[in-house]
Every structure is written in C-alpha cells, then in structure tokens.
C-alpha cells in the first residue's frame, strides 16, 4: 500500500516539511485536515449530523464523529478535501455549497496516539432530510442526528446522554441510539465549542 505523505506545520501554522501519515501521528506533528459538518434544518431547528465510524477502523472504531473528514495530502489544496464527502458519504457537492468556519486547532492526545490538526472546517446546511447517502462501508457504518441544542447540553455536561436518531444505516431496524460523551471521538473541547457556536450562528 502506498504511503500517504502529509505536510508538517509548526504551532503557528508555518509549513516546515512533510512526512508519512504514520510518522506524523506517531510523533504528534501538526498537519492539515478537512472537516465537513452537515446541519439539517427542520422547522427552524438545527440538527447536527454525525457519522458512526466503521467498527473495522483502526482508530476509534464505532464512535461518533464529524459527518465527513480526512487528511489533506502534501500535494493537495484545501479544496481537494471535498473528495472526503463523496468518498465517505456518496454525496456530490462543491465547495461553493459549504460555509467555512475557519481553521480550528484540534488535538486528540491519548496513550500511543497524538493527533494535532489544523482543521479546515466547513458546515453544509440542508433542509433535505433524505439526502442520497451511499456510505463507504470500511469507513462509515451509519449517519445519525441530534438537535444542535442537545449536543451542546451534552458537551456542557448538563445531561449525561442524548438520543441520536438513525438517518441512514445498513441496519434497517435501527431507529435511535442512546449516546454518552464516551461514544464520541474525543476532539478537543475548544474545537467542539467552536463548531457548535458557529453552527448556531449560521443556521
């Protein structure tokens, strides 16, 4: 399998070189990613969409995460990141349909895993609940949603769990999942707060 090369940055987002994805994660080096959050609006109420990561994923299998996301390779631009939406979700869209909420620092630091990202983060607003999802099975096992306000209450620890409604899954009988914070990929608090506040402002 061909190695993926990513650009390496310092903490001020200045490019300082490149190396393989595995080397960068092993040493906790800063790199760039593309994040796209889907927000569905129903009767003025915004719902945030999460992907459930495939159970065969090496990192955080089965946990809930950004609707679509991926690394920006060393030879790519930020706009090339839109491919992740098509690859993971089967949804065709252009960058013009997305709203940028900026570059957000996001760190996930655990034993044996150091992921330091400059996340180019976007929001896609839709009023179509029945988007034509076609999931990349080795990456994504389902799409789930919750009212944005409930997600915020969970991360503020005002509630211990929330209900995630199943939007699309191979399991036709699955209606909803009761989720706690442990069921989500542990993105940095600053990152999550920025996403939630930005989604509230642009809804």
TrEMBL record:
All copies of the Nudix hydrolase domain together span 29-168
SUPFAM superfamilies the UniProt entry points to: Nudix (SSF55811)
Q: Which InterPro entries match?
A: NUDIX_hydrolase-like_dom_sf, NUDIX_hydrolase_dom
Cited CDD domains:
NUDIX_Hydrolase
**Gene3D superfamilies referenced in this protein's UniProt entry, alphabetically:** Nucleoside Triphosphate Pyrophosphohydrolase (3.90.79.10)
Q: Name one GO molecular function term.
A: catalytic activity
Q: What is this protein called?
A: NUDIX domain-containing protein
Give the species this sequence originates from: Paenisporosarcina antarctica
